[in-house]
TrEMBL record:
Gene3D superfamilies: YVTN repeat-like/Quinoprotein amine dehydrogenase. Residues 45-78, 126-136, 541-566, 645-655 have a biased composition (Basic and acidic residues). Residues 572-581 have a biased composition (Gly residues). Belongs to the WD repeat GAD-1 family. This is WD repeat-containing protein 70. The lineage of its organism: Eukaryota, Metazoa, Chordata, Craniata, Vertebrata. Residues 1-27, 43-171, 541-581, 621-655 are annotated as: Disordered. WD repeats lie at residues 179-211, 280-322, 385-409. Pfam families: WD40. It comes from Lynx pardinus (Iberian lynx). Keywords: Acetylation, Isopeptide bond, Phosphoprotein, Repeat, Ubl conjugation, WD repeat.
């Protein structure tokens, strides 16, 4: 068989592929000519189609806008007075004429210069501007529409803008609910990102879970537990995914639990005898606070009295991820009292007992990126540092009764400072409003000396614009959730309050307020159900309780119940009770063999008493040695002398 040539393989002849070649190669279709595509022609066709569709869509939108404009003009002419309506009509007609002219000009220009337009059409407001010239090769989504001049704004719009500029009106404090945590200070608050569950912790070691969707008007927690046994709860925070909770207590080991309270991991405890804390695997002293990473799942941070800030991973509880060691200017150790992540998670900020605030890059643990030495008074515990939502401003709540704002871009002096804010708790915190226009913190009071307040400062001017009287105790924790627009407050008398506004807030406390309190079922109050049948048979009747006197008389006749108990053991005895023996072998030996049979006679006489019987009837000793005893070689010399008779044998032989 001849092999096909190159021309036959490519299938260049007009008759098509050789069927014999296809059979030879083993599959059909071999030798067909490959199909070619002209990409430039395809792109050109696609561009023309997109331009045509964009033009049609633009024309349809212009017609719809024109019809809506005419309807609005008619409605305004009917409502407004004749004089004012005439001026408005003239102005609107001039606007419409200018829009018509601009639209006609845009249509003319679109016929010439917009042939290359691809994508959705331009908004109408952009088409109205005469200076907006569209480039020929624009591809992709178009920029947002331009706003109209301030002359076209109405008086109502001016009122709305003034209302928006006043941030105090956005505070949701018209309604409140009270959650009873306990009798001691609520020192920790945590709300999941969706706002469905609230978790509270206090000085009573308890952590309680509250579900807004599952609660009714009774406001009862659905779960209570003590994850850290006898240690006060200092910080609670949900992870960015909402499936885990970081629990920081007075111990040296932080814990992570899930949404239902079951333990996920526990950090390892470090070796307290190692000098360099970077060489230990965990904290060696009491914890202060902790925080989750805002972006990376499973990473969190803790600070402790061992003068370190450590980052951890949930998957590796046996060793920390990295160690940050705050230092003074002289290089000495200093204890961090609080720490937090920046909003993007790239920075770690910590406030220390010497009054300094130190900020590190998350990936560089050696030297801090920013270090301000005297942010607050030395010796006071700064209780909170937090970043604003834009990430440029840092707020610090000091133990010197102050609240300060810092710009991390110019970290050389505070932007603002407010004093006269007493605090008596090491976890009094502060937070920003969801729109970043307000800064909120709480104040502490002595028992019976007034009420704790929630104070609001405007961020731009740092003026004290608003305050809320919470209760007759200190305000320790505050949390403003951005999605719910509700404020959670933890107090020093064991209460957790939720402030909301029915019009401005979403879900949260609004879900449980509308539910009525459930009534206890009647069957649940009875310990046992009784069916009363007065005419039942005697076998089905319940026995009546007889008097005690008759029962005692009946028991007296019973020999088992009336048996006199045995007296206690007294006096000398052996083997247990005196005069009584059991049926065991030891008791038998004690009774029959091991009894103490004292004999006061002479022991020599007691032995010689059996000498006569042994000599007359030798049974035990003499027969046994009769065959083995040697024969006597020397006869004993008997003497009348008693002394010679009693002398030893060796003396006699010597004589």
């Amino acid at each position: 068989m001849e092999r096909p040539g190159p021309s036959e393989v490519t299938g260049s002849d007009a008759s098509g592929p050789d069927p014999q070649l296809a059979v030879t190669m083993g599959f059909t279709g071999f030798g067909k000519k490959a199909r070619t595509f002209d990409l430039e022609a395809m792109f050109e066709q696609t561009r023309r189609t997109a331009v045509e569709r964009s033009r049609k869509t633009l024309e349809a939108r212009e017609k719809e806008e024109e019809m809506n404009r005419e309807k609005e003009l008619r409605r305004q002419n009917e409502d407004i007075e004749p004089t004012s309506s005439g001026s408005n009509v003239v102005r609107d007609c001039s606007k419409s004429s200018s829009r018509d002219t601009s639209s006609s000009e845009s249509e003319e220009s679109s016929g010439s210069s917009d042939d290359e337009l691809i994508g959705p059409p331009l908004p109408l407001k952009m088409m109205k501007e005469p200076g907006n010239h569209i480039e020929e090769d624009i591809v992709g989504p178009l920029p947002p529409p331009l706003y109209e001049d301030a002359e076209d704004d109405d008086d109502d719009d001016d009122g709305d803008s003034e209302e928006e500029e006043n941030p105090v009106q956005k505070i949701p404090d018209s309604h409140e609910i009270t959650l009873k945590h306990g009798t001691k200070t609520v020192s920790a608050l945590g709300l999941d990102p969706s706002g469905a569950r609230l978790v509270t912790g206090g000085y009573d070691y308890d952590v309680k879970f509250w579900d807004f969707a599952g609660m009714d008007a009774s406001f009862k927690a659905f779960r209570s537990l003590q994850p850290c046994e006898c240690h006060q709860i200092k910080s609670l925070q949900y992870s960015n995914t909402g499936d885990m909770i970081l629990v920081v207590s007075g111990s040296s080991q932080a814990k992570v639990i899930d949404r239902d309270g079951f333990e996920v991991m526990e950090c390892i405890k470090g070796d307290q005898y190692i000098v360099d804390m970077a060489n230990t695997k965990g904290h060696t002293a009491m914890l202060h606070t902790g925080s989750w990473h805002p972006k990376i799942k499973g990473e969190f941070m803790t600070c402790s009295n061992d003068a370190t800030v450590r980052t951890w991973e949930v998957e590796n509880p046996r060793k920390q991820r990295s160690v940050f060691k705050p230092r003074t200017v002289q290089g000495k150790k200093v204890i961090p009292t609080t720490c937090t992540y920046s909003r993007d998670g790239n920075l770690i900020a910590a406030a220390c007992q010497n009054g300094s605030i130190q900020i590190w890059d998350r990936n560089l643990t050696v030297h801090p990126k920013f270090h301000y030495k005297q942010a607050h008074d030395p010796g006071t515990d700064t209780s909170c540092v937090t970043f604003s939502y834009d990430g440029n401003v840092l707020a610090s709540r000091g133990g010197d009764d102050t609240l300060k704002l810092w710009d991390i871009r110019q970290f050389n002096k505070p932007l603002f400072s407010a004093s006269g804010l007493p605090t008596m708790f090491p976890m009094t915190d502060c937070c920003f409003s969801p729109d970043d226009k307000l800064v909120v913190t709480g104040t502490s009071v002595q028992r019976g000396c007034g009420s704790g307040k929630l104070v609001f400062f405007e961020r731009r001017t740092f003026q004290r614009v608003y305050e809320i009287d919470i209760t007759d105790a200190s305000v320790v924790r505050c949390l403003w959730h951005p999605k719910l627009n509700q404020i959670m407050v933890g107090t020093g008398n064991g209460l957790a309050k939720v402030y909301y506004d029915p019009n401005k807030s979403q879900r949260g406390a609004k879900l449980c307020v509308v539910k009525t309190q459930r009534k206890a079922k009647q069957a649940e109050t009875l310990t046992q159900d009784y069916i009363i049948t007065p005419h039942a048979l005697p076998m089905f009747r319940e026995p009546r309780q007889r008097s005690t006197r008759k029962q005692l008389e009946k028991d007296r006749l019973d020999p088992l119940k009336s048996h006199k108990p045995e007296p206690p053991v007294a006096g000398p005895g052996r083997g247990g009770r005196v005069g009584t023996h059991g049926g065991t072998l030891s008791s038998y030996i004690v009774k029959n063999i091991a009894l103490d049979k004292t004999d006061d006679s002479n022991p020599r006489e007691a032995i010689l008493r059996h000498a006569k019987a042994a000599e007359d009837n030798p049974y035990w000793v003499s027969p046994a040695y009769s065959k083995t005893q040697p024969k006597t070689m020397f006869a004993q010399v008997e003497s009348d002398d008693e002394e010679t008779k009693n002398e030893p044998e060796w003396k006699k032989r010597k004589i």
